[in-house]
């Protein structure tokens, strides 16, 4: 009888260890996937000639980069940032009170992000990576014929609106496995509606014509207070 109990407890311990091993293996795989996607995204984000077309809610915006200049074109305004040297100069083209103006701001320290930040993938420390893996659901899905990882996070308070828009329940990014590029974002709202954003990329196609300044705008100098 005693021998049977020992065998039973041995079996229970083995099962528990197997479950723990499976859990740790799955968790380590999630960390590996997220870390690998992060590296691919960073590499693409540093490309010197890149355009990103973003379609959302029937509106289109485009981001361009060519060498040391970036240009963001939205339905409401256009921004050009010259990043040559240690500090940047920003030009914001817009219409204000029926007047076309360009606000110029010198001596800016900027960090340019060409790619949409997927589920806040940039995590420097191991503890942050573990926390990210815990909060992110990962599955494999096919989007428009492309093999993707679907990265889903529940909305969390205290995070910026560009990551978790107001009223959202969860955010899912579909990231192409081979390139690490996000090609689709779906925001699931509390009211059961969805907001969908589509991303299209083009490398080494941006020309000087794409990056040229807009004409017919009156320059207004902006200053940065110390």
Task: Report on the architecture of this protein.
The mean pLDDT is 84. The protein is α+β, with helices and mostly antiparallel strands. It has a 12-stranded mixed sheet with strand order 7-8-9-10-11-1-2-3-4-5-6-12. Helix 1 packs across helix 2 (126-135). The chain is elongated and about 95 Å long. It has a domain at 49-113 and 204-222. Helix content is 26%, strand content 42%.
Q: So how many helices? A: 3
Averaging pLDDT over every residue, what do you get? 84
Task: Flag low-confidence runs.
Answer: none
The span between the termini is: 81 Å
Write out the strand line-up for the largest beta sheet, numbering strands in chain order: 7-8-9-10-11-1-2-3-4-5-6-12
Query: Helices and strands: which structural class?
Result: alpha+beta
Q: Categorize the overall geometry.
A: elongated
Helix content: 25-40%
Oligomer: single chain
How many extended strands?
12
The H-and-E topology, N to C, reads as HEEEEEEHEEEEEHE
| Strand content bin | 35-45%
Largest sheet: 12 strands, mixed
The Cα radius of gyration reads: 23 Å
List the keywords.
12-stranded mixed β-sheet, 3 helices, 26% helix
Helices and strands, with pairings:
Layout: H1 2-45, E1 49-56, E2 59-66, E3 69-73, E4 78-82, E5 88-96, E6 99-108, H2 126-135, E7 136-143, E8 146-154, E9 168-176, E10 182-189, E11 194-203, H3 208-211, E12 218-222
Parallel strand pairs: 6-12
Antiparallel strand pairs: 1-2, 1-11, 2-3, 3-4, 4-5, 5-6, 7-8, 8-9, 9-10, 10-11
Concise overview:
The protein is of the alpha+beta class and 226 residues long. It has helices at 2-45, 126-135, 208-211; strands at 49-56, 59-66, 69-73, 78-82, 88-96, 99-108, 136-143, 146-154, 168-176, 182-189, 194-203, 218-222. It has a domain at 49-113 and 204-222.
């Amino acid at each position: 009888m005693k021998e049977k109990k020992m065998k039973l407890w041995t079996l229970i311990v083995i099962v528990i260890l197997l479950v723990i091993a499976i859990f740790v293996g799955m968790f380590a795989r999630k960390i590996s996937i997220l870390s690998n996607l992060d590296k691919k995204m960073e590499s693409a984000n540093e490309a010197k000639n890149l355009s990103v077309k973003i379609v959302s809610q029937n509106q289109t915006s485009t981001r361009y980069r060519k060498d040391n200049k970036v240009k963001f074109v939205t339905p409401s305004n256009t921004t050009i940032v010259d990043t040559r040297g240690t500090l940047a100069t920003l030009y914001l083209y817009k219409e204000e009170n029926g007047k076309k103006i360009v606000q110029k701001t010198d001596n800016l320290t900027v960090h340019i992000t060409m790619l949409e930040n997927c589920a806040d993938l940039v995590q420097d420390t191991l503890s942050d990576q573990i926390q990210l893996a815990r909060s992110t659901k990962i599955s494999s899905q096919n989007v428009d014929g492309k093999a993707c990882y679907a990265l889903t996070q529940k909305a969390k308070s205290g995070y910026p609106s560009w990551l978790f828009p107001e009223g959202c329940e969860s955010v899912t990014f579909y990231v192409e496995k081979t390139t690490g590029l996000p090609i689709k974002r779906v925001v699931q709202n509390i009211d059961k509606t969805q907001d969908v954003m589509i991303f299209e990329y083009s490398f080494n196609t941006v020309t000087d014509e794409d990056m040229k300044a807009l004409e017919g705008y009156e320059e207004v100098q902006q200053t940065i207070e110390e």
